[in-house]
Design a protein that fits this description.
Elements lengths: L1 E4 L2 E3 L1 E2 L11 E2 L8 H11 L6 E6 L5 E6 L2 E6 L2 E5 L11 H9 L1 E6 L5 H6 L10 H5 L3 E2 L8 E2 L4 E13 L7 E13 L4 E2 L2 E2 L1 H4 L2 E3 L5 E3 L10
Antiparallel strand pairs: 1-2, 3-4, 5-6, 5-9, 7-8, 8-13, 9-12, 10-11, 12-13, 14-15, 16-17
């Protein structure tokens, strides 16, 4: 065993069998790593990740907008999405989570290449109550089934009602919650739909990687199951 850095307990390992015997494996114990180290290795391996660009309002109706890359589909019957806002390093809960707890509603906007730069601007930590829509020069379009605006420039949006929430060590940095939202309404720009299918080439989504890195979805390949 040797220590690569503070909190990282790692060991080179060889199994001595053919091809695998040539691979050097590093073993990590997450219990001995710092939260920052766990975050870096998780976000460096679990990728690319889709981005939930979540809009909410507080109890006074002031809008908030922020991106979250811990995001996926939980169910299609009923259609349910989930995303995971984390507690900040300073121990502060996200305004997004607080707003959802107060109103029970939110909108997940989809990010494409055209809105990537604006999405990045909305990740800036603004004071509570200050609009990220205004900060990034975005259009707040009223929701149809929720009292929360969507991003007018986004290619698609899901209007959601809070279905349930699962807290995970939310009082500590790196903890937070899993927020499940039942989709009440979907808005999709007509030009990105071919028949009933979304066109990847027309949607031009982006994926979150690690650090300040993102990726385009440009080179595709197909695997047929028989």
């Amino acid at each position: 065993m040797y220590r690569k850095s503070s909190g990282w307990q790692v060991a080179p390992e060889h199994d001595g069998r053919g091809f695998w015997g040539k691979i050097r494996l590093m073993n990590f114990n997450p219990e001995t790593m710092t939260q920052k180290e766990r975050y870096k290795i998780a976000t460096g391996l679990v990728l690319p990740r889709p981005i939930a660009w979540v809009s909410t309002v507080d109890r006074e109706g002031r809008p908030n907008l922020a991106p979250y890359s811990f995001f996926t589909v939980a169910s299609t019957d009923p259609l349910t999405l989930l995303f995971c806002p984390q507690t900040t390093v300073g121990g502060r809960r996200k305004d997004t989570l607080q707003n959802i707890r107060e109103t029970g509603e939110f909108v997940i906007n989809i990010v494409d290449e055209d809105t990537a730069a604006a999405m990045n601007q909305t990740a800036t930590g603004l004071p509570a109550g200050q609009s990220e829509f205004d900060h990034a020069g975005l259009t707040a379009v009223p929701g149809r089934c929720v009292a929360v605006p969507r991003v007018g420039e986004a290619p698609a949006a899901f209007e959601c009602r809070l279905e349930r929430e699962v807290a995970i060590n939310e009082d500590h940095p790196g903890g937070g919650a899993v927020v499940f939202g039942r989709v009440l309404h979907i808005v999709v720009r007509d030009e990105i739909i071919d028949d009933t299918y979304i066109s990847l080439k027309k949607l031009r989504p982006i994926g979150r990687l690690m650090g300040s890195w993102y990726c385009h979805v440009t080179e595709l390949f197909e695997l047929i199951r028989r």
